[in-house]
Amino acid sequence: MPDLNAPAPFSVRLRDAVAEAGAPLCVGLDPDPDRLPPRFARGGAAGAVAFCLAITDSTQAVTAAYKPNLAFFEAYGPDGWDALATVCDAVRRSGRLLVLDGKRGDIGNTGRRYAAALYDRLGGDAATVAPYMGTDSVAPFLEHARRCAFVLVSTSNPGAADLQHLDVGGMPLYRHAARLAADAARDLPGEAGFVVGATRPQLLADLREEHPEVPFLVPGVGAQGGSVNDTLRANAGGPILVNSSRGILYASSGDDFAEAARDAAERLASSLADSAIRSAGSI
């Protein structure tokens, strides 16, 4: 008998979260002590928590998901794990999706422990996963129903081409990675998604054509040079979250940082919504 209280599949919750927010905006939570306003930077892990909670409070009206980057919390040591758990609790209470960005990728019991930490202990709806070790490094993150493993396929950093664009059997490696993830998900209860950078929209379009229903997590808009219009045109109406971190978190370094973050999030959300309408009209 089905559990009527169980959460819906990730793709359904993604669709609903985007509809509620009005745009597919994901805000990255990267509390860099070198960029935090001074009163938070001096507070260590507790300061990082206070900063992130102020950001989530000020931006959640237009945000579909939040993406804490685990490195910025782990760097605080033991206090950082408690800080991360507090931020994750706040995101879950907000009703927004929680994407945990740790880029994990290991095999066997190690991979399963990584997945348990992110999904069961921290309550993530999704996690970023590195596929370099092959199918058995992705599978542990697909063994959890109603969760999504966003597999690194075509990333936004300049060095992505070093490996991801290599020709392997007449096909670029990023397409092999995408097929590996999609194939692995067919026989497992979780969903596979792709991390696809906004800085190479032609590759995003290529992947969307082959995988029309797969959720994309797209970094690289704004500070890294990616274009909202190019991204959503290439996406062709598929399920998507467009991430922004620095452009929202550090819109101001003064006491008005939360208001500046809200204004930046609202501008980006409006741009995403407008571009989505234009892209839908051109399909």
UniProtKB/TrEMBL annotation:
Ranges of residues in domain Orotidine 5'-phosphate decarboxylase: 24-261
Active site, per annotation: 103 (proton donor)
Superkingdom, natural source: Bacteria
Catalysed reaction, written as an equation: orotidine 5'-phosphate + H(+) = UMP + CO2
Recorded GO MF terms: orotidine-5'-phosphate decarboxylase activity
Biological pathway: Pyrimidine metabolism; UMP biosynthesis via de novo pathway; UMP from orotate: step 2/2
GO biological process: 'de novo' pyrimidine nucleobase biosynthetic process; 'de novo' UMP biosynthetic process
Keywords, ordered alphabetically: Decarboxylase, Lyase, Pyrimidine biosynthesis
UniProt-listed Enzyme Commission number(s): 4.1.1.23
UniProt xrefs under SUPFAM superfamilies: Ribulose-phoshate binding barrel
Family note: Belongs to the OMP decarboxylase family. Type 2 subfamily.
Name of the protein described by the UniProt record: Orotidine 5'-phosphate decarboxylase
Gene name linked to the record: pyrF
